[in-house]
């Protein structure tokens, strides 16, 4: 059995971080953006078959999350693929993907 080290639990990002990335001012779309943040985080973890972001890989998952939220926000009606994760985000998290045998 592998040892698991969790040093801190907390959000991967804040709404303010994501709004800055999206260049959104004002609060009109906060609910929508928050929903996209949650969906992006869950999609990336599901893609990797993980329940937590790997230790010391927060920056990688945060960057992939920004890319994914941007795709959700900018292309609300377009389909990126069967999992909805943009190729650039998928490439970032691919090394952390665990495939069950």
Précis, in short:
This protein has 101 residues and is mostly helical.
In helices, the fraction of residues equals: 40-55%
Which residues sit in consecutive blocks of at least 5 with pLDDT less than 50? none
The biggest sheet amounts to: none
What value does the Rg take, in angstroms? 14 Å
Characterise the protein shown here:
The chain is an all-alpha fold and 101 residues long. Helices cover 50% and strands 0% of the residues. The two termini are 16 Å apart.
List the helices and strands and how they pair.
Elements: H1 15-22, H2 30-47, H3 58-74, H4 87-93
Features:
101 residues, mainly alpha, 0% strand
């Amino acid at each position: 059995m592998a040892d698991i080290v969790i040093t801190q639990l907390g959000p991967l990002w804040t709404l303010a971080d994501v709004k800055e990335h999206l260049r959104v001012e004002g609060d009109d779309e906060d609910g929508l953006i928050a929903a996209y943040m949650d969906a992006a985080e869950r999609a990336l973890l599901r893609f990797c078959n993980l329940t937590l972001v790997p230790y010391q890989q927060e920056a990688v998952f945060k960057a992939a999350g920004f890319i994914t939220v941007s795709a959700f926000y900018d292309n609300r009606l377009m389909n990126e693929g069967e999992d909805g994760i943009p190729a650039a985000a998928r490439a970032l998290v691919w090394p952390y993907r665990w495939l069950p045998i």
